[in-house]
Amino acid sequence: MLEEVFRDEWGRVLASLVGFLGDFDKAEEAAQEAFAIAAERWPASGVPANPGAWLVTTARNRAIDRIRRERTLAEKIHLLPVPEAVMDELDDTVIKDERLELIFTCCHPALPLEGQVALTLRAFGGLETADIARAFLVSEETMKRRLSRAKAKIKATGIPFAVPGASLLADRLDAVLAVIYLIYNEGYSGRVDLGAEAIRLGRVLTALMPDEPEAHGLLALMMIHHARRRARFSGEDLVLLDDQDRSLWDTRQIAAGRAVLDRAIALGGRGAYVVQAAIASLQTRERIDWPQVAEMYRRLVELTGSPVVELNRAVAVAQAGDPAAALRAVDRLDLDGYLYFHSTRGELLRRLGRDAEARAAYGRALDLATSTPERRFLTQRVEQL
Questions:
Q1: What is the rounded CA–CA span in Å between residue 328 and residue 348?
Q2: Do the beta carbons of residue 333 and residue 311 sit within 8 Å?
Q3: Whole-angstrom Cα distance, residue 176 to residue 104?
């Protein structure tokens, strides 16, 4: 029960404390102390009716006591924005507003992208530094430095703990969405499921900004993709969409993702995340309408100008029955250092019976592949030629 409360309430508690204390490190220390007290008391006394408010109140009071005890910080007690908290003073509405402020603080454009990602996961995922480092394949010391630099920059430059004004909101929201999607794309597997963490963050954002269609579009996209995660691998082998065992798909999550997508469209959403979610939804239909998927990718190319999106459009064109046209589109792209450019070329050449060229394309993809499932898949493709 305590672990469940931790996952549900950590972001809310930390957000309230950062706003109260104005310091990430002190807020984390106070939050950890409050959860430790809960772990000691709740098994005997039971979980309070409002565990989040209990945790925030306890953490605030402990933080005030600590500041009073530390003689070098004695002056800071006069700077605290509110008097010592009482048990019934907090409510969910206040905490939700502060969570929104903390999201925008973590994703401030003055911070480097890797710092935004790490700080967002630390603040809202409730992950330990070692877990974040393991997920991003860097040492714990490297991740500690990233977090420390991000926190120091917030303090040194006076980055405000506040939602930006209406004129700046769209630019800042784009950064928030990009960071959450980057977290999602770091992968599904391992001890830390970053896909699930990103979906949790997406739910927080849509709850806090219910009228933003792109926030709903991103959440729908992640939910629909994540519903297929168990079917994407068979042991260590990568399984393509056409070959996936659909009985392993989470159909309830797909339906929930489509409902979120419907909400985004009802809000007038036509942006890149909404279009990507629509493509993901089409690809989970019993019979995939590949010409329609290709058309949706064409719209996405218009929105993003991305050559990677153009590559995906070519794949849909091939699936719709025209691999020659798809290959012509691929060969116009400048993506030589991109693994999936070469694996896609290999697949198209294989379908066209140009085996020698396909073998060379798969070989180049193998040179760029880093994960075991990708290398196994490409090796099998070469052996089949």
A1: 10
A2: yes
A3: 7
Dig out the tokens for 134 from the structure: 């393991």
Confidence of residue 79 (pLDDT cuts 50, 70, 90): low
Amino acid code (one letter) for 343: S
pLDDT at 371: 80
How confident is the model at residue 131, as a pLDDT?
Answer: 78
CA–CA separation, 128 vs 147, rounded Å? Answer: 11
Which residue type does 312 have? Answer: N
* Residue 97 to residue 102: CA distance in whole angstroms: 9
Q: Can you name the residues that pair with 234 across neighbouring β-strands?
A: 237
Label residue 8 exposed, middle or buried (CB < 10 Å: 0-12, 13-18, 19+): middle
Which token pair is 222?
Answer: 């992640």
Convert the pLDDT of each residue in 277-303 to its tens digit: 999 999 999 999 999 999 999 999 999
Q: 3-state secondary structure string, 55-103?
A: HHHHHHHHHHHHHHHCHHHHHHHHHCCCCCCCCCCCCHHHHHHHHHHHH
User: Residue 65: what pLDDT?
Assistant: 79
Query: Is there a contact between 299 and 272 (Cβ–Cβ < 8 Å)?
Result: no
* Helix 194-208 × helix 166-185 angle, to 10°: 160
Backbone angles phi, psi at 233, to 5 degrees: -135, 145
- Check pLDDT > 80 for residue 93: no
Helix (H) or strand (E) holding 209: none
- pLDDT, tens digit, for every residue of 223-239? 999 999 889 888 778 88
How far is CA 211 from each of CA 202, 219, 270, 289, 365, rounded to the nearest angstrom?
14, 13, 14, 30, 42
Q: What's the longest Cα–Cα distance across the chain?
A: 78
Q: For residue 330, give the nearest of 319, 320, 315 by alpha carbon.
A: 315
- Rounded Cα distance between 206 and 313, Å, is 29
Task: Give the rounded distance of the alpha carbon of 52 from its chain centre.
Answer: 24
**Nearest one of 41, 81, 40, 42 to 64, comparing CA atoms:** 81
Backbone angle region of 154, left / alpha / beta, with phi > 0 → left and psi within -120 to 50 → alpha:
alpha
